[in-house]
Each structure stands twice: as C-alpha cells, then as structure tokens.
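User: two proteins, same treatment. go.

Assistant:
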Amino acid sequence: MNSPKVTLDQWRTLQAVIDYGGYAQAADHLHRSQSSVSYAVKRLQELLGLKLLHIEGRKAVLSDAGKILLQRSRQLLADASLIEQQAHHLEQGWEAEIRLAVESAFPTQILMKALKQFEPLSQKTRIRLQEVVLSGAEEALLNGDADLVISPYIPQGFLGEELIQINFVAVANPGHALHQLGRSLTTHDLNRETQVIVSDSGKKGIDAGWLSGSQRWAVNSLESARKIISNGLGFGWLPEKDIEQQLKDKQLKYLPLNKGLCHTGILYLVYADLNQVGPATRQLAEVLKQLSR
C-alpha cells in the first residue's frame, strides 16, 4: 500500500482558507503565519498535481476538482478525529464528557432524576447539557455537537430507539378570554386569540403546532411558553406532565375543545455514532430508558 503524499495538516489548512475566506483569515484562525499557510496550500497542489483554488478579489475560490477533494478531506479529518477520540476513551476507560442534547418537550422531572441517578455511576464523567427544539436535535448530531440526543424524530443516517410518548394539551389561564365564552371552542375562537409557540432551535425553522390563522408569539423554550400562558397572555399546547402543578394550582386550565385538546408526540433516543459509544454514554442511555418507561 502506497503511503499518502499529503498530510492531514495540509488538508486542514486548505479547509481553513476556504472556510474563513482567505489566507490571512486562515492564518489568524490557525495561529500561524500567512506565508506558512500559503506554502502549505501550494505544496498540497503540487503533490496532487491539481489546481484546487484561485483568488477572486480577496477571496479564495475552489476549482471544480477542489470542491470534490475538499469534501472528501472533511470526512478524512472527521475520521481522524474519531480515531483520536476513541483512543482517548480507551485510555481513560470512561469518557471525560458526555454531550447531551435534549428536546425541550422531554419531561424535566425525568431528566433530573436520570442525571441524579447517573451521577454516582459516572466516575466523574462531565455532562454538557443542551436544550433543543424540533430540528435543533438533528442539527446537534450533524454538527458533531452531541454524543446522545433526545429527538422528536430519528434523522437519516443515525440510529435510535423510541424513548417516551409525550401528551400535549391545550391550556390557558382560567381568566383568559377563551374560558369566558362558557362553551366549547371552535378553531374560529382560537384564531381570534394569541397562540404561544416554541420556535425551532435549528436552522431549518420548522413550524409545528400552531394555527395558521392565529396571532402568535414565539419563544425559545417551553418554560417561557408556560410562564407566558400561565400569566394569561395567550394559549397553547404544553406537555401535560410538565404542567401538572400549574393545573392543580389553577394557574392553567384545559381549553374546552371538542377536538384537538390533546395531541401526542414520540421522542427518540439517538446516538451520534453507535460504533463509538463509550461506557458512560451507554450507562446514561440505560438510565434514561429505565426512567422513561
């Protein structure tokens, strides 16, 4: 087998030139001199016998061949990074950190119980917790920002399993105008009032769970939505498990809908890479599954 002529550092340098828009910007990012960055890319092209990029104005632009090879090089560097991560895991025994991304609809009380139960088992493994909404879970996986994700769907190319069913119910403060009508509500009634929804945290900007004709307020978390709705500033669908206390304290009240009072969603437990899952991540996943049954 022939040894590669090109080093990982040369591919990394080319990526930086393209990602940051030029040689000077890449040099700043890599904490190197501009001349060393320029030489690395020049040498890369000489070794390959291909023109990979050219300069338009002050910006580095890829050739057709450069676009193909740059994409392949990204996978190459990602694979190299995974090998190093796996070596670290083997050396340490358990992962130093688990990056956990959790869909905001997942019951807070279950999450807290899971983390509390995992803590004495963790062998000092740190948890980096990120709350996501809708496509934010997929984005965390695709960007390599999470090791374990609780998501409303399993993104293409990933493996996961059903974790829990979530019931969303339509509610408003007892003093809200919708409760003052004293009858079953229609879609027309709802469309005259402000609906509170939670925005997609991902770049896809998926719209879900809102009525097309209603005035809407968008917030970044279910906790914010719960607070706004509890204070009589709108209505919305919230996870029933998370608002049990507010219903009991009469801060919230089910809307009298003949249809659509409740809708159900399923959350999945998804692994970033099942072949690279370490013992700590597996242990945390088992705790989450046990408590979600």
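Protein 2:
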Amino acid sequence: MDTLTVLITGASSGIGEACADVFARSGHKLILWARRIDRLNSIAQRLADTTGHHDSVLVQGVDVRDRIAVQQAVGRWHEPANTEHIDVLINNAGLSRGLAPFHEGSYEDWDEMIDTNIKGLINISREIIPMMVKGGGGTVVNIASIAGRQAYRGGNVYSTTKAAVKMLSDSLQIDLNGTGVRVCNIDPGLVETEFSEVRFRGDKERASTVYKGYTPLSAMDVADVVYFVATRPRHVAIQDVLITPADQATVNIVNKH
C-alpha cells in the first residue's frame, strides 16, 4: 500500500488519538489537529518512539470552529517539508454538552456544539475536499453518532448536530460522485472516551456511570473501522457504518448486567 497522508481533527484524545495510533503503526504520514497542542506534542513523541519514524507526524494547534485559523493552518502546509495533498480526512472533532430538556437548555452549550460539530466540520471539509478533487481522489470519514439516527431524552441539539453530519455525508456522496473522492459516515454507539466527561464538564464520577454494567466500545474499536474504510481499494466505497457495543440495541436500550 502507498503511504497515505492523513489529517485527523480532534486528535488529542479518544477516537482521534486512536486513529493516529492505527495509521502510524502502518507507516502513514499524519497531520494532527486539536486545540490542546501540548497533548498533540505528547502523542507525536509517543508515536515517533513507537514507530521509529520521527518525521511522519505534523501537529498543529487548531480550533476548527475558527475558519481563519483553519485556512491559515492549511496554508502553512505549502512550506518546505510539509504537504499539499491529503489522502484521508478524518473529521473527528466534536463534543456534547449537558442533558437538559430543550426548554431548559443553554444557549452557550448549543452554540459550542453547533459551532464544533457542524461548522467546524464544514470549515475543514471545504478547505480539504477541493485538494482531493484536484488530485483525483481521497477519502473523507465523518465521525457522527448513533444519536444522529435516534433521538433520546436530553439529546435534542446534540442529536440535531449529528443528524446534520449524517446528512452532509449523504450530500457529499452525491456532490463528489465521479471525482474519485469517497465519503463515509460512521455512527458510533457508546464509546468509553472523554466524551461523557466533557458533556458533564469534568464530573468524572457522573461520567463513569455511563459505562457501568456492560462493555462499551473502545476508541480503538472505532479507529479500526476507520482504517478499514480508508484503505479499501479505490473502487470500493463504504458509505455508512453503525457500530455499537454488543450490549447496545438502540441509542438508549443497553443490556446492563
């Protein structure tokens, strides 16, 4: 397999970090984006020590909500030793805030979810996809959620943002048909990452209760699927994936034991 250049957003933890691990182990070149540059630097050093490749990871502290920052970060790739083409874009940056019913919801929480989960994904996709089209191919993987398929109590605006990701994925598959660019929407179910801790603003005890009584997915479980999707032969397009723990039947029906 040829060496791929892979851009991963939200790469400082969870599914994004796991994707970095999977692609790095297979010798691919990585560009890692997140707001926490210190975490990215630590991950890059760990990957370099593990793989022995010390020039295959570029880290950039980027807030995908900031369109100008996204454009500036992409612009810096034209400098020597960097790249101008992305083979795989993994739109992973995203978050959830709170579980309040809609009529008690927080505008601040809603803005953060909409700006990150929808606008952030649009910002980076608009910059990268034209490169892929010009280059004759590439793979876009959008990490959405089972919550974008099924509503649940307190999910309201978060579910709305993830449904938007799914619809954008579907639309891109149409718009990019014939360009050589593939698009896959991945909807994970319950994955044990920092997700719930972020949702509950650092309340680790409350977050831990989400994953008790069953075996949730790990970030690596999802990353393995992302890698499979991105490395299929060029004539194979996997458009949509729902991945859940075996104990999860729907967004809120979970066999706890």
